[in-house]
């Protein structure tokens, strides 16, 4: 039994030409779709970077505010060492003013968390994505440590009522002071280094100065005035 393949109506050459046109059309359509997607993600990445840069600029401003408070924090902790020594020796404390409080504004990361979740960062160049990732890792570390500092100083605020403190209160505050001093040393050793600022500069991000509210500014100023 012999099978005969049907012949194209206008010959094989015309048929091959028609198929070729169809293939080329499909390829053009696919290439066009990819081009549209590429342009789309290019704009998405540009918008994403702008949002990240704004968030990081604010976060770096918060970090800078902590650096500027560093000398006041260090001096106050040194004064507290003297206060504890006077108390243990039964001497008058002779405090000249209130304890004051360092200010730890909140570090934001909602933009980073959102763009990672929706996959926008996956369309960035690898080196750019890694730079953002490293910088946010440093920011997260800073937020964790300042949260610890904030907790310690919240307990130390009891010094403003030292006249009614019990021996148990003094013992507890001695521990909180030691914790505040330990965390402050870690923060000062890391945020004062140029590493974070180098990473930010590589992304074109500059700190946006943080503006304290009046009450927060008053507490910070009190911290920077001598206590003893």
Question: How would you sum up this structure, described in words?
Answer:
By secondary structure, this protein is mainly alpha-helical. The chain is built from six helices and no strands. It has one domain. It is 70% helix and 0% strand. Helix 3 runs antiparallel to helix 4. The protein is rod-shaped. The chain starts with 11 loop residues before the first helix and ends in a 5-residue tail after the last helix. 21% of the residues are buried.
The mean pLDDT is 88
User: Based on DSSP secondary structure assignment, what is the total number of beta strands?
Assistant: 0
Q: Taking Cα atoms only, what radius of gyration do you get, to the nearest Å?
A: 31 Å
Largest sheet: none
What is the subunit arrangement here?
single chain
Q: Which short descriptors sum up this protein?
A:
mainly alpha; 70% helix; 228 residues; 6 helices; rod-shaped; 0% strand
Give the arrangement of secondary structure elements.
Elements: H1 12-88, H2 110-117, H3 126-156, H4 167-191, H5 195-202, H6 214-223
Helix pairs in contact: 1-2, 1-4, 3-4, 3-5
Short summary:
This protein has 6 helices and no strands. With 228 residues, it is mainly α.
């Amino acid at each position: 039994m012999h099978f005969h393949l049907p012949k194209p109506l206008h010959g094989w050459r015309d048929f091959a030409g028609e198929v070729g046109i169809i293939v080329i059309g499909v390829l053009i359509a696919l290439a066009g779709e990819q081009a549209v997607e590429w342009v789309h993600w290019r704009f998405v990445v540009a918008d994403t970077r702008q949002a990240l840069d704004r968030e990081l600029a604010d976060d770096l401003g918060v970090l800078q505010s902590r650096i500027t408070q560093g000398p006041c924090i260090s001096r106050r902790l040194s004064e507290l060492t003297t206060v504890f020594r006077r108390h243990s020796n039964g001497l008058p404390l002779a405090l000249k003013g209130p304890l004051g409080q360092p200010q730890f504004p909140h570090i934001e990361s909602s933009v980073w968390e959102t763009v990672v979740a929706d996959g926008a960062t996956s369309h960035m160049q690898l080196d750019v994505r890694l730079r953002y990732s490293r910088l946010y890792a440093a920011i997260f570390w800073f937020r964790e440590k300042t949260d610890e500092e904030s907790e310690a100083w919240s307990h130390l605020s009891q010094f403003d009522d030292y006249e009614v403190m019990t021996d148990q209160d003094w013992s507890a505050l001695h521990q909180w002071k030691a914790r505040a001093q330990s965390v402050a040393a870690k923060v000062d050793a890391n945020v004062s280094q140029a590493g974070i600022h180098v990473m930010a500069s590589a992304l074109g991000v500059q700190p946006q100065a943080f503006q304290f509210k009046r009450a927060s500014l008053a507490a910070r100023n009190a911290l920077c005035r001598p206590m003893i």
